[in-house]
Each structure stands twice: as C-alpha cells, then as structure tokens.
Amino acid sequence: MKHCSSCGQENELRIPDGEDRERHVCASCGTIHYQNPKMVVGCIVEHGNRILLCKRAISPRRGFWTIPAGFMELGESAPAGAARETLEEACAKVEIVAPYAHFDIPHIGQAYLIYRARLLEERFAPGPESTEVELVDPARIPWEELAFLAVRYSLELLCEDREAGRYRHHLGSVVRSNDGFALADHQFFKLASLKK
Amino acid sequence: MKHCSSCGQENELRIPDGEDRERHVCASCGTIHYQNPKMVVGCIVEHGNRILLCKRAISPRRGFWTIPAGFMELGESAPAGAARETLEEACAKVEIVAPYAHFDIPHIGQAYLIYRARLLEERFAPGPESTEVELVDPARIPWEELAFLAVRYSLELLCEDREAGRYRHHLGSVVRSNDGFALADHQFFKLASLKK
C-alpha cells in the first residue's frame, strides 16, 4: 500500500477525519484505501467414513495436506466458492451440505468459512495446485502434515463430532498463545437440517 | 485499481500465468493485485420482544434504518467486529448469542455475517453514524425504510422464526432478479446452543 491505486502517488498512514484508526491515505488525491479481512472458503468432503484431502503442490505449505479451500472471488457466494475450490484442487464436483465452521484468524486478516459437502460423482484427481488427492480415513489423517491451523481445528472437531454421532456448527478464532497457537472463543451450536 | 499500490506505475487487466481470470497486474513490477469480497458484520440485538434499529446519519442510505453493521476490520474476529459496530453505531454493549445469517451479495462483492446479540446494559444512543437508535417492536419495523436488502431479509426471517417459536441459521445470496432483487439459494438449519 505504498502507492495510491487511483493516482499512483504515495500514500501516508494517518487517521482520516471521523475515523478511529490509521488508514493508507493518498497524500495527493486523498483517496482512503481500506484493507479488510479476506475470506477463505473450503469444503470438508465426506464420502462414507472418509474425508477428501489434497497434498499441496504450491506455496505456501507445499507438500502439506489440506482440505480443498482458497480465497473467495468477487462475483460468487461463499458456498459456490467452496465448491469451486474443490473442483479446482481436487477435480471433484460437490454439493454443499451445511456450514461447518467459521474460524477467524485476526493476526493475518483471514476468515475461514468451511462447509461440509458430498461428492456428486465418485471422481476426484489432483488439480494443478495439488500433487495428490485422497479419501482418507479419519484414523489416518496426517495430523503433523496438515497445512493450516484452521483446517487442523476443523478436522479435529469433525472427528469429535462424528464420534459423538452429531454435527455441530463451530465459531472461533485462531490466535497466538504462549505455546504457539490456540482456538479461542470457541462456541458451538447443534445444527440440523430442516425440511422446507 | 488503475495504479500499482507497490510501485505506482499503471496496472493492466490480464490473466496471470496459471490463473483462470483477469486480475489487475502491474505492467512494470508484475505485482498481481487480487480483489476479494468484503465482510459486513452486524448484530440483530434483541431486547425482550424488541429489536435495536439505527437510523443512518451517513451515506449510503442516509435516513434509512438498519441493524448495527459495518465492514469487518483487520485484526478482529467477525463476532468482535459485529459487537464493535454495535458499540459505534448504537453506543450499546452487547454479547453475541449465535450466528444468525450469512448472506452473500455477489454482484457487489460483499458477505453479510449477522449475529443475534443481547444488550449487556440497557443503554443505547446514536453514535456518530446514526441520528436515532430505537428498540422497535417487530410489528413496527419500518420495512419500506430499511437501508439494505440483507438487513431486510434477516429481519423478515427473524420475524418468521419468532412466530414459529425457534431460531434458524440462514444461508443465501442476494441476487438480481426480474423484478429487482431476491434471496437465492436460501438454506436454513435448526440451531440450538449446546452446553460445553
């Protein structure tokens, strides 16, 4: 944010009139450049007892495993974005079943919106951003080789939910703690489909 | 996005290598400038039977009514942002009760995350962005004077849920339709608190 995206001149960091925090403001044309969190949308695809995982072919966290997920694009809904990412990364067509988790990561300005989904066809394969795609038994999830914390917490809670024989809807924030990171402000709700 | 925010030179619209859609890419330094949806976070504050509404003092939709809501900021969680907006716009301290609705608005790149909340103290007043703040009986909601469609749909569904004696969790997208706009892909789920 060194330069103004409107006129190209240099921005300065200052608190605009009527606001309470510093923004990048163009010293020349006065445009205020707001920066906001980005949404990461993804799917926990369940097939029978197994879960679809992808091994990342790209940075960050190349070589680590994840659920299909990525930045939501302009012009799409969050569930559509989660399904698009699943098609791109795992060549899998899915239907969204229900929201599963919303985990904010305040220190990096990201919000993970994770949905449970099911395969529409029993076909999957690595897309360009994956080297492997597998349906993994929960007992064989590579916990030490997961790419992202929000994915790890989602899968841990999913395993817990399945053992308890029900799904919950989870809210929380991934925050720095004394010994690394932790899931803070974890709230959960019983979630059941209602017929229209 | 005319200029590169890194170097100030002009961007061009083109599809970067390995991607599938046009991005603003700096013709000089090559930086790709991604644009993603913004999250709007807000609260339906219930107090007894009534709901906290604010009359907007600012553009857009000045003079129209809304629930307290605004753009999520870097460094906060979505529920914290919804509570912050409620403090700013209605001078009301609230506790988040549960997620209520996630409505995407693809054509303007926004995602509304709306939470049910309760007053921690029975105190509220117009903040700088409001001219009036009121606890409104559902029968007296000014439907024709609501500022935003996502707010309208949320309040309509809340009234419906209350009449049915339960709350649901709602997903959907606000889309253009033949006669204006509509709530598309509406899915809803029964949501109940679970004790930890």
Which of globular, elongated, flat, extended, rod-shaped describes the shape of chain A?
A: globular
Regarding quaternary structure, how should these chains be classified? homodimer
User: What is the CATH-assigned architecture of the largest domain in chain A?
Assistant: Alpha-Beta Complex
Our measurement of the CA-to-CA distance between the termini of chain A, rounded to an integer number of angstroms, reads 47 Å
Radius of gyration of chain A: 19 Å
Structurally, the number of domains of chain A stands at 2
- Report the top-level CATH class of the largest domain in chain A: Alpha Beta
Give the DSSP E fraction of chain A (strand runs of 2 or more residues). Answer: 35-45%
Number of helices of chain A: 2
Instruction: Specify the CATH homologous superfamily of the largest domain in chain A.
Output: Nucleoside Triphosphate Pyrophosphohydrolase
The total beta strand count of chain A reads 12
Please identify the structural class of chain A as seen in this structure: mainly beta
Percentage of residues assigned to helices of chain A: 10-25%
* Main sheet makeup of chain A: 9 strands, mixed
User: Are there runs of chain A of 5+ residues with pLDDT below 50, and where?
Assistant: none
Q: Largest interface, per-chain counts?
A: A-B, 54 and 54 residues
Mean pLDDT figure of chain A:
95
